[in-house]
Amino acid sequence: MVRFPFRIFFICILIASYAGLASTAVAQQDSTAHQLRVVEIFGKPAEVYAVGSHVTQLDSTYLSTYSSSTLADALQARTPLYFKSYGASGISSVAFRGTNASQTAVLWNGLNIAPATLGQTDFSTLPVTGFGEVAVQYGAAATNYGSGAIGGAILLSSPDYDDHKGLEADIKLEAGSFGRYFGNGSVRYSGKKLSYGLSAYSLWVENDYKFKDLSRFGKPEVRQEHASVEQRGLTQDIGWAITPKTKLALHGWYTFSDRHLQPAMGSVYANEKQRDESRRLMATLQHESWLGKTDIKLAYFNDFLHYTDRNNDSESDVDAYQLQAEQTYAYGRHWSLRGGLNLQHYQAKNDGYAGEQDESRASVFALFRYDPLEHLQLSLNLRQAFAENYNPPLTPSFGFTYKPLQNDLLAIKGSLSGSYRLPTLNDRFWLGAGNPELRPEQGKNTELGLLHKTVLNQTELTLEATAYLMQVDNWIQWAPNERGTWRPTNLQKVENKGVELSASAKRKLGQLSLQANAGYTYTSSEQQKVYEGSGNDVGKQLMYVPLHKGVFSAEARYQAWSLLGNLNYTGLRYTSNSETNSLDSFLLLNLALTRKIKLQQNTLLLTLRTDNVTDEVYQTMLNRAMPPRGYTFSLRFIIP
């Protein structure tokens, strides 16, 4: 068993910090005789060491139009990911390639933000506004991002102000159906050495829509009550170019959510309320020298949750301290090597625990990118993690991309990767249910794909297909024991396999610009072995994993007008692992019409949006009513 006491952790922070300062001081000496080698030449940051993996990025047009939405809404509409939402005001969690929410890593500027208590992120509390980029990496990514990245990873980054010099401002006001009001304002400044950005938002929605109560005879139409949501938050980013080769940045992110948890159909209202509050602070230091690029990140995250109902009143307060130091060296256009150290310490106070719990983790990693030929890219990554009371395995990954044609129109890609997930604090320490004997989950992922880009009749086409096979052993699942008490166990071995298809097209006809994107996934997620309990569910699809999921979006721009449409299909899902009950498939259509008006150097955007155009009756979780057709109108003023 490996123990990493907080005292050693703190000493490591001091040593790493001094080492970073020392290397910066040395590098500030005369290095003009050395050629500066940076890694950005290899492509987008999310893809540099993810060769052979399926990586996508949300386009800026959609993020701008739907800036008042949550991250769950944005990802559900633009990617074939499936989100389980407990109604309009409930928790929203993601399922990647048939895995569960705790098997997805969510990173902000490269550091995992999931609290150690739950080990998962509630996407309904994360806004779209305030981010620079949102990228998605499918499949096991533990070598790059650590524990939890079994099914995939969501990569969030702060805005980059280097491309926008001077002062800019942005104000958006929105009103919509079901008592919805949203406001957002941001200001950005970028100069020669200093950059600053501040973005704040506020949302209030009553969610008083009418729905068909499927739990009652005749399915009468009733009005939703006790589902109001109040959210607010801000992001703040400060950048300072100390020297042309040294940059210091400070990032802050605050979110607040106070909501009535929507009751299930047919249930007695229990006055369930939940308040979530998160504070995230991060300092980053970047320096470029003849040794390459040095990155040091120091962060403090705090997640507070207060839940109440008629009979309960509980609080959870988690502090997380993280340090990550990386050194990247790139040699021309042929290879790049990144080595690093990640340290984490968690302190949790929870009314469900016998006392305060803390845990320290560490990992070292090496990421290698090698392009031996113009048409061949390779990556080999390794990560070794250390955790108190656990011995996580060495986690490797290998990826390749090969372009057999001289015109680079076709690419064959693939990867082999491992992954792991440590049990959460709730899994181990919850009173009357926690299981300290849990073993870490371990996963293996294999994928193979084709990527084709071409221009046909002045239309840019991109087609991609990926097939994957994933196995996760010691899958942790909360299930009732022989006394009926719910507790976590290493219940099963699960095999996930499927196909992911995507396509995009762009064409310009005079003043008319057309763009379309499509995505489809087939996901089979079945139990292969059951270590505890009944084996009757072996070979059956896991609950709330749709076999079929598809999205289609299209945008047309003509002069000052633009029309954006999103079509989202979710197939049948079982509500138990025995496949005895299920939820019907559903198809959602959203439309948005925008008019751009130039006011001298400034821009005014008027947007009319319609969600669930066909008034589809659907559920993502059993007996949780979702909103019918709704309308939203927004004004956005951009300076300059």
From TrEMBL:
Coiled coil, from the record: none
Family matches, as PROSITE patterns: TONB_DEPENDENT_REC_3
Signal sequence segment: 1-27
Pfam families: Plug (PF07715), TonB_dep_Rec_b-barrel (PF00593)
TonB-dependent receptor plug domain boundaries: 51-153
Keyword Transmembrane annotated: yes
Keywords, ordered alphabetically: Cell outer membrane, Membrane, Receptor, Signal, TonB box, Transmembrane, Transmembrane beta strand, Transport
Similarity comment: Belongs to the TonB-dependent receptor family.
Protein name (record): Iron complex outermembrane recepter protein
Phylogenetic lineage: Bacteria, Pseudomonadati, Bacteroidota, Cytophagia, Cytophagales
